[in-house]
Every structure is written in C-alpha cells, then in structure tokens.
Amino acid sequence: MSLPGFGRPPAYYFMWILPRNLFSRLCGFVADIRIPRILLTPLIRIFSRIYSVELTEATQQVSEFRTFNEFFTRQLLTDARPLDPDLDAVLSPVDGFIGEYGRINDGRLIQAKGLDYRLADLLLDSKRDSLYDGGEFITIYLAPQNYHRIHSMVEGEVREFSYIPGDLWTVSPLGVHHVPNLFARNERLTTYIQTKKGECALIKVGATVVGRIRVSYDDQISNLQGALAKQLVLKTPYELERGEEVALFELGSTVICLFPPGQVELNELELGQTIRLGNAIGRFRLNSKE
Questions:
Q1: Which whole-number Å values give the CA distances from 80 to 157, 221, 253, 278, in the listed order?
Q2: CB 53 within 8 A of CB 47
Q3: Residue 221 and residue 25 in contact, taking contact as beta carbons nearer than 8 Å
Q4: Has this prediction a pTM greater than 0.90?
Q5: Could you give the residue numbers annotated as active site?
C-alpha cells in the first residue's frame, strides 16, 4: 500500500520525518536502564514468545538479565553454534537471513531487486575499490529474535578498520526496497581481516533503533553525536580464530561480507534463506592467494 501521488508506503514517510539518529540513541539509552526484575523478566518472556527467541541457548537465565540490552546482547552456550569443520569453509558471521549475495560487477552491489549501490560509496576507500571489484558479497539481515553478536567468518588478524558515521534508516524490507543507497547512507563500521588467502571485509551496518555497534579490538562505538569518519591502523594486530567474536549490535541490523575476486566461491544460497553463525556460506578457492 502506498500513499496516492507519493508512491511509497506511509511508514516510509514516517521514517523520513523521524529524527532517526537521535531516536536510536534514545532507544540505546532506554535499553540500558536497569529495570526491576519483577518487570523486566516478564517483558523479556513476552518479547521472546512473540519473536520465538530460543532462550535455552543463552548462558544466563532470563531472571539474571538486568537490562533489556543485556538480553539483546546475550551470549550463547559454547556448543550452541558449532562451526563447519572444513577449515577452508567461510563461515556465516551471524544468525540471520540472506538479503542478497553474488558478484560485485563494475563496482556495484545489489541492494534489492531493481536497486543497487556503489562499492566506492560503501567503503569510502579508493585504494580498496579495485581490490573488491569483481569479487563476491553477501548481505545478512539480523531479525529481532536473532543472536546479536558478530563473529569472524575466517581465521586471520585485524590490522585496520574504518568507522563511517551516517544516517540510520531501517534495514527492514521497508528500507531495503524503498531507500536508495541504503547501506552506503547508513552508519557503518568495517573490519578488514587479513588471512592467508588475502584480505576480506566484514561491514556492520547501523540502523534505526540500533543503540550502538561495538567491536572487540578497539574502544570505538557507533552512533555518537558529532562523530567523524576515521580509518585506523591497530598498533598491534588483533588475532582472530574462525568463529571468534569480533563485534556486537545493541539491537539488530545487517552485516555485509566482501571478498576479492578469486578468493572464495559462495555456496548455492537462496534469498531469504535462514542461516546461523558457523554455517558455511562458501569456501576458499584452492588457487587463491597463499
């Protein structure tokens, strides 16, 4: 349904006038408030019932959470997400479902049917445009019920990362299908991972209601008023095992994985396919860089 003469759903225009960044910071503030357990525990149980959250996977009991944000960023039991045993497998870094995937053609990635966006606008790093053009990408959306921590899809080390402040449009189907250049407009924090097969990138995209994005290897957080874009080189490389935690969303959003040409071959995937952390999304090619 769209408004006559406007061509987009009414919710789009509500999002358009909403102070999205301020609203998201407010959501983060509220999610951090300590609520009496007599109120918080039933609230979490109601939310979990509505969204089918698997509470038995968490390391904490529902009654142990002190804030709603602690519940959203809950850790899982060590055996809850087994990693694909093939050491050449590229892992899904999150729980979620596949939004888009495929080849980066002429510096453009698919956002949704009929919409694409530029790699150059996504990374804002001219030296990497040619590195990833012609390679593979996969976009994975995290729904409210998903585990909200982000893990490395490969073994390697973090030497460099970038933070790009931006808008905070919703990354739900409303935003994906109606906001041009959505992922290149929204705030994002990109981790560059150096592997034996070359560099790959893990992009965490901000969204409406996402209070913050945090990373494990630095004190950088997202959604700060007046923040400036930055690209930082770590003084000491941060070693990562495959499947090791690298970041988290305080409320859910989207990740985009980028791979240079010839580095990986993606599995046969389907749009909308549910995927879990540790599942194989592809495999390193035998002839890729050693």
A1: 25, 27, 21, 10
A2: yes
A3: no
A4: yes
A5: 95, 151, 253
